[in-house]
Amino acid sequence: MDLKEEDILGADIGRHWYYRSKAAALRRMVGGLGPRRILDIGAGSGFFSRHLLAETSAQAALCVDIGYPSDRDDHEGGKPVLYRRDTGPTDCDLVLMMDVLEHVDDDRGLVRHYAAKVPSGAHFLVTVPAFRFLWSGHDVFLEHKRRYRLSEIETTMREAGLQVMRAAYYFGFVFPLAAAVRLATRNTTEPRSSLKKHGALTNGILTTVCAAELPFFPVNRLAGLSAFVLARKP
Fold first, then answer.
1. What is the pairing mode between strands 79-84 and 72-76?
2. How far is residue 106's CA from residue 224's CA, in Å, rounded to a whole number?
3. Which of 23-27, 98-102, 196-200, 201-205 has the lowest mean pLDDT?
4. Which of 19, 83, 92, 158 has the smallest C-beta neighbourhood within 10 Å, fewest atoms?
5. pLDDT (tens digit per residue) in 112-125
6. Helices 47-55 and 17-29 sit at what angle, rounded to 10 degrees?
7. For residue 191, what is the domain's CATH number?
8. What single string gives the DSSP state of each residue in 110-176?
């Protein structure tokens, strides 16, 4: 996840509508898999893997991020959370890449790199920002290289040697408003985050709107702010 966004939200990240809603969509996308050990790449604070530890039967998380100053061990509800700058081969059966691939030059190469470290049958859950026409100063601020159509991130995963299981857009209900704002400022690419802290009322309303979208999420191949892909290592 984006460390710059974590810096903006701080301790409020778990209450922010965007992250609460993305965590709910993540949980729905991996529902039924029953992962035991999570490998969270570009994990930052480990928000998403810690969420799965708290809300599912997953037993441990290995968070990998080159931004960590040093290795350390923590826990979530008594379950181990290991923070590491790198990892060797691991028996993790669910790999998270939450808003990671858009930051690197070789997205396929990064997927292949970690696919080689996990056993056959391991699943990958990847999210990326959707649609190039939504490019704005927010992407510049976060140092993105690209945004993706759903078909493009599916192709990336297949060319990295994985089998795509399912894919969908999310944040479709807020997409029209967000797209209108982005298009109105599309000629302005000054680095500037569009993520802001909100009060309880705004967070509550937007969380409710996104929750109403969840039943339609698995079949949404039309539009959204984020693209989700679940893939499997053969």
1. antiparallel
2. 24
3. 196-200
4. 158
5. 999 999 999 999 99
6. 60
7. 3.40.50.150
8. HHHHHHTTS-TT-EEEEEEEB-GGG--HHHHHTT----B-HHHHHHHHHHTTPEEEEEEEE--SSHH
Could you give the CA distance from residue 225 to residue 74 in angstroms, rounded to a whole number?
Answer: 32
At 186, the amino acid letter reads R
Q: What is the Cα–Cα distance from 54 to 57, expressed in whole angstroms?
A: 8
Where in the sequence is the domain holding 35, given as residue range(s)? 3-232
Among residues 208, 124, 131, 103, which one has the least CA distance to residue 166?
124
**pTM to 2 decimals?**
0.91
Please say if the pLDDT value at position 30 is more than 70. yes
Element (H or E) spanning 94, and its range?
strand 94-98
Q: Is the Cβ–Cβ distance between 95 and 124 less than 8 Å?
A: yes
What distances in angstroms separate CA 168 from CA 88, 174, 186, 218, one per listed residue?
31, 15, 25, 6
Joined tokens for residue 121? 């049958």
Among 71, 72, 77, 74, which Cα is nearest to 51's?
A: 77
Angle in degrees, 0-180, between the axes of helices 17-29 and 200-213, rounded to the nearest 10: 20
Helix (H) or strand (E) holding 198: none
Domain count, the chain: 1
